[in-house]
Description:
The protein is 22% helix and 22% strand. It has helices at 8-16, 24-50, 155-158, and strands at residues 66-73, 78-81, 86-88, 91-95, 101-106, 113-120, 129-131, 135-138.
Amino acid sequence: MRGKPPSYAASFYGRVLGRGGPHAAEVVWIMSRVIAVTACGFMLAACSATMPSLSLDFMKSAPQPETLTIESEPPGAEAKTSLGQNCRTPCQLRVQPDSEFSVTLTLSGYQPQTVSVRPEADGAVAVPRLAPNPVHVDLQAMAPPKKPVPKNKKPAEAMGGDAAGRAPSPPAETAPSATNYPWPSR
Length: 186
């Protein structure tokens, strides 16, 4: 009686080990290619991890937004960033720390002021942080507008005369009225 036919696994391993089957050499050749491709992949990964000139920035995630606190003295100033965000102080804004931008604070009766905010990193791998944070601005009050200085009058004008330099005429005396009404008598 013949025994059971060998299972697929037994047949495959028999061929790899060189025992039996017409395709045993082909299986050995395929396995050697798989091993060679895997070894090349490991070598490429090792080279890219140790070569400093190869940048893997595409593998980094985008920087997380940071909260920028804006304060002013006096409070209540309108704060507008060059990125398009705005708020009334004291306030906080969510900002990406990837590039430099400016914050302009304005308040009625005070001079507007602009502060530059930039990202700073403490090391090559450190996440950039915004500086300055918090932004604090002491707004300067505007000087009140100066009153216009009157032009120098000619001496005759200063004494009540006219621009031609004539002296003023003396006030006309009126005769007392019999009724003492404020209108002139006839």
